[in-house]
Amino acid sequence: MTDQDQRPKRGLPRSNGARLTALVAGTALLLGGVFGVQAFTGTNAYAHMKLIGHGHGHGGWHRDGKRFADLSDAEVEQRIERVVKHVAIEIDATDDQTRRITALLTAVARDLRASRDQWHNAGRMFRQALVKENVDRSELERLRSERLAEADRVSQSLVTAIADVAEVLTADQRQVLEERVEQFRSMRKRWHRG
C-alpha cells in the first residue's frame, strides 16, 4: 500500500447524512454571514468606516502618503469634513452643527498651515545666524521672542476654536464626545504598548 492510499480522501462526505449535514451547515453559515453583514452595515461602526476609510487603507492625515503640510487647502477641507462627519455620527450632531464645526476647524487648520511656514523660516534663520562669523545674540533673541509670540497666538487661536466648537454642541453632546475621547485614549495606550 502506498502513502497515497493511506491518506484520507478529501472532498464531499460520502454518506447522504453527512452531505445533508454539510449542506445545512454551509447554508446556515452563508445566511448568517449575509444577515450579519446587513446588520453590521446599519451600525455606527460601519458608517465610521465608510467616512474614515474611503477604501484607501487607514484613515488619518497621512492617507496616500501625504502629511498635513503637503495637502492642498481643498484636501485639508475634505479631510476635516470627513472627520467632523465621523464625530457627528457619534454625538448625533445636526447638519447645521456639522457645517458650523467644519467651518471653524477649517479656519484653524489654514491658520496652523501658515504658522508652520513661519516656524520653518525662523528655524532656517536661526541656523544661519549661528553659523555666521560673529554670533549676533540680539538677532537670536529677536527670533526667539517672535516665535514665542507666534506660539502664544496659535495657542490662543486653538483655545478659542475649541471653545467655539463647544458652544456649537449641547452639554449632552460634549459629554458623549468626552466619553469617546477617553475610549480612544485607552485604545491608543493598548496600541502603543511594546
Describe this structure as you would to a colleague.
The protein is mainly alpha-helical and 194 residues long. The chain folds into 2 domains: 15-53; 54-191. It contains 7 helices and no strands. The protein has helices spanning 3-6, 16-41, 44-53, 73-91, 95-130, 137-168, 171-191. The longest helix has 36 residues, at 95-130. The chain starts with a helix and ends with a helix. The model is unreliable at 45-62 (pLDDT under 50).
Structure characteristics:
mainly alpha, elongated, 7 helices
What is this entry, summarized?
The protein has helices at residues 3-6, 16-41, 44-53, 73-91, 95-130, 137-168, 171-191.
Secondary-structure topology with pairs:
Blueprint: H1 3-6, H2 16-41, H3 44-53, H4 73-91, H5 95-130, H6 137-168, H7 171-191
